[in-house]
Design a protein that fits this description.
The protein has helices at residues 12-31, 36-45, 49-62, 68-79, 85-96. It is mostly helical and 98 residues long. It has one domain. The longest helix has 20 residues, at 12-31.
Length: 98
């Protein structure tokens, strides 16, 4: 199972979600189909307590995530970098010129 998500902002959430998807795919090969609700609850429980509580509050206010893609979209919107790829490129380029 992937390590606990600590809320780091940036590209880490995309990698974390991919690790979960791969982990679930491997589990399905052994155990059979894993329901979306189980996938989501497993990922939610694999976060720091503050993030867990925030996700539970979101689900209480707006309803449970119906599908993994809904959960992944929410996590990306919340924890992914807001910089465009061009902005990242320019920031890295300027760091190299320092």
């Amino acid at each position: 199972m992937p390590k606990e998500f600590d809320g780091a902002i940036g590209d880490k959430i995309v990698g974390r979600l991919e690790k979960f998807e791969n982990w679930f795919d491997e589990r399905e090969k052994v155990e059979g189909t894993i329901e979306p609700e189980t996938r989501i609850n497993t990922a939610v429980h694999n976060t720091k307590q503050t993030i867990f509580l925030t996700l539970r509050k979101h689900q209480n206010d707006y309803g449970a995530f119906a599908m993994w893609d809904d959960f992944a979209k929410h996590m990306k919107w919340t924890y992914d970098s807001k910089e465009t790829y061009f902005q990242k490129f320019m920031r890295l380029r300027s760091m190299g010129n320092s």
